[in-house]
Amino acid sequence: MLVALFVLTLGLFCYSQGNSESVLGIPQLYGPSEALLRQVVDFVCELQKYPENETIQLRVYKMGHHEKLLGEYTYQPDEVASIPMMITDYHEGFLECVAKPLNASSSNITATVSDPHYLKVIVPVKNAEIEYSGPMELFEEDILELRCLLEAGTHVSYQWLLNGRLLSPSPRHHFAEDRLRIFRTTSGDSGFYTCIASNTFNNTEVFTSNSTEMEITVKVLASDPDISFVVLKEIQNYSALVTCQSARGSLPITFSLYNSTELVSSVTAEKKNATFKVPLDLRQPPDRLECQANNSDPIAHSQWLPLRVVPVKGPVTMLYDQDIGENYVVIGLKMYCRASEGSHPRYHWFLNKTRLHDRGSFYRVDDQPPQQSILHLSVRASSSAGTYHCKVSDSFDNANAVGSNRKYVDREVLNRLPILVVVIVFGSFAILIMLVSVCCIFGVIYRRRVYGEKSLLTLEMERLAAYEGELESLAYTEAGDVAETASQDNFDEVSEASADEWPQTEELQDEPL
Ligand SMILES: *[C@@H]1O[C@H](CO)[C@@H](O)[C@H](O)[C@H]1NC(C)=O
Ligand SMILES: *[C@@H]1O[C@H](CO)[C@@H](O)[C@H](O)[C@H]1NC(C)=O
Ligand SMILES: *[C@@H]1O[C@H](CO)[C@@H](O)[C@H](O)[C@H]1NC(C)=O
Ligand SMILES: *[C@@H]1O[C@H](CO)[C@@H](O)[C@H](O)[C@H]1NC(C)=O
Ligand SMILES: *[C@@H]1O[C@H](CO)[C@@H](O)[C@H](O)[C@H]1NC(C)=O
Ligand SMILES: *[C@@H]1O[C@H](CO)[C@@H](O)[C@H](O)[C@H]1NC(C)=O
Ligand SMILES: *[C@@H]1O[C@H](CO)[C@@H](O)[C@H](O)[C@H]1NC(C)=O
Ligand SMILES: *[C@@H]1O[C@H](CO)[C@@H](O)[C@H](O)[C@H]1NC(C)=O
Q1: Protein residues with CB under 6 Å of any ligand 1 atom
Q2: Is ligand 7 within 6 A of the CB of residue 273?
Q3: Pairing of strands 345-351, 386-394
């Protein structure tokens, strides 16, 4: 019943739709989803239902912009309403088709509008150029921002190249639309930048435009220079050769040397160091110097360095440490050579009056100026045996060399135990044995006094006497060495014998009396 009613209703509805000629259907707009600029593209606006006694006009507009007609077609029955359009920038967006009677005033039929259709207009990219307003020379930790400008182009994607290599996003590299931002620049960001703009049509046609290269330099600020000096002696005059050295910094760097009152000298160098020669008067109180390194603001400063020169003075001492290997064997020595004074010492090591150089088969010299020089010596090789000493002189003047004490080094000698140690160790051992023996004897006597019953004591005495008798006969019958042992270890024998007796004595005690 219900089904029959539904079918009837549906049938009636269809009938009324099909026959009502005064009703205007909703048009449908068909066309490509993307189009090239200046291309002529056909769009189709299809109308299913329309009143037959009216002339219908179909018009294409941008959605919401009916003031500008993009294309129109006067509907003829049984014709495909093809509306050709010459594509301009303006066509980009949602398009719609409006159907309405040509003579609107004569009818009361209202216009109908299609669903919107999105059209992408591809304008091929043209003439990419990098826009950059900042300085061509940046410093580390700056921000670099470049923009890729185009004369034309829509739906563009951008790529950036540095020295021909594609840049990819990173915590420091941000890409947004046509912009490239690099944060916290480093010297590695220096080079030639290019932007490539591209867009595609129909997934088949690709348009690209490369910009010309733009060179950007990221400079490294000069780091605080180190300052040091060596002393030169030329006949009677002394001078200081002062070296200023920055660990980092883009070249060129201007190094300036100041004393406590004024600028002494300045030089611009294509390297990270500079050397200045300053006259030195050893009789005057020392002046102090500072280096400045400059390749932009801010200027880097060294520490103040006093130009203090103290000639080497004795005594020169040579101390040593032993390197102990397995089994407490001495395998090496570390010898330290020190002078009591001297700001610019030079050290020389000698074995049997032969000068040792930086490194040999069994040694290595480790200079730690101005404090000391260390000679690392392996005593395994027999060639290392001999007498060692060191000499210290001023680095600028060999005339006043001071020698150290001498030490004879030999593997055997180093590992031989000192006689005193032997005496002490063996003496202590003998005393220990004596003390233990005496204790045992006293222990025996004491216990016998406490528990000593006459019968037991006499039994014991007899046993002891018998045992001694046995010993004596043994000593007489056996070879002389046995007798020797017996007499030598007399204490031990006695204590052992008494210790042997004890279990028996106790057994006797335990027996009921
Ligand atoms: C077309 O026919 C309808 C009735 O079917 C009428 O109302 C309308 O006025 C007619 N229009 C024209 C232009 O003749
Ligand atoms: C439109 O309709 C009016 C009145 O019905 C008529 O006077 C006029 O001529 C028609 N115009 C066209 C172009 O058909
Ligand atoms: C789009 O590409 C297809 C092939 O992928 C091709 O058949 C078609 O003609 C192209 N359309 C236009 C407008 O170039
Ligand atoms: C643009 O640069 C890319 C990458 O260097 C290169 O492959 C391409 O040929 C260049 N195109 C033009 C038009 O110069
Ligand atoms: C040493 O210094 C004095 C004055 O500073 C100068 O006249 C003399 O030529 C110098 N001598 C040498 C050898 O450089
Ligand atoms: C600093 O250097 C200048 C020029 O070399 C010199 O005339 C001046 O005496 C120096 N000042 C001191 C305190 O040594
Ligand atoms: C100074 O720099 C040059 C070039 O970098 C280098 O060859 C030279 O050893 C440096 N001098 C000193 C004293 O460090
Ligand atoms: C150094 O002299 C000692 C004797 O004083 C000698 O035994 C040793 O072989 C010498 N060493 C060298 C390397 O000449």
Answers
A1: 21-22, 51, 53-54, 106-107
A2: yes
A3: antiparallel
